[in-house]
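Running log. JK asked me to keep both predictions on one page so they can be read side by side. First protein, sequence followed by its tokens:
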Amino acid sequence: MRNLVWGLLCFVLFYSCKKESGCGYSDQNIVAPVNEQQAVKDYLTSNNIQTALKDSSGFYYEILKVGDGNGVAGLCTQVELTYTGQLSNGNVFDQSTTAFTLGSSIEGMRKGLPYIKKGGHMKLYIPPTLAYGSNDIKDNSGKVIIPANSILIFDITLNSFY
């Protein structure tokens, strides 16, 4: 019995370590609920967006330009991108060129960005569970810039990664 418990413990530890990256970020395997996936699909339909593909986690994406080069960004990768983030009502909440570690971003970005390579351009349509969920996101003055349970739309160009 003792050997069985020890064996199971080793298996669990090995399996959990295998999924975690060397930088401390790990794949969360979060899937948006069906109602959120449907809300994104309804948004796409009402805006006549017919080329968006669905990822198994529940967000949708359009690849406008794949990009070139070898490799794709991973969780530990430092990415530099230019993006515009907007709500489904069209309000832009952020627009920037920035660099960050991909694993530190929202789940929809973490899972979506690897679809393109350096120089690639895409749009992401992210349900709330893969973004900020039921949390309001406020600016420095306390004004809500992303209301809770918002669908987020990102227009992204991946400038580089390393």
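And the second, directly underneath as requested:
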Amino acid sequence: MYLDQEHQVDTLILSPRLARLDASVAVDVRNAALPLIDTATGDILLDLSQVVFMDSSGLGAIVGMMKRAGRERRFQLCGLTPGVEKVFRLTRMDRVFEISSTRAEALSGEAAAGAPGAGG
């Protein structure tokens, strides 16, 4: 629906196909992601490179995904556009999430910012 998925090595990569992750779609995106997270056997990477706007509902959906992944798995973000990055910075959630600039950086394990090993 709103979410692409792919697997690389032992990581499930989820990519919202939306320009806006806001109240109108956040619950749907979270509900689409949770079963995928539940059945994933490895780490989770949320690629937000297509999202240019996010509100608190979108942030809440991402927090819900991270909590569902649990502490035993790595939950990372990558590809934050300037507007989305600003939301994470203003809410100080950039200190909670492990954030990489690119997908390649995230998959190599070289987080650019955030809390290493953050998982809920």
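Observation for JK regarding the second prediction: The first strand starts at residue 3 and ends at 8.
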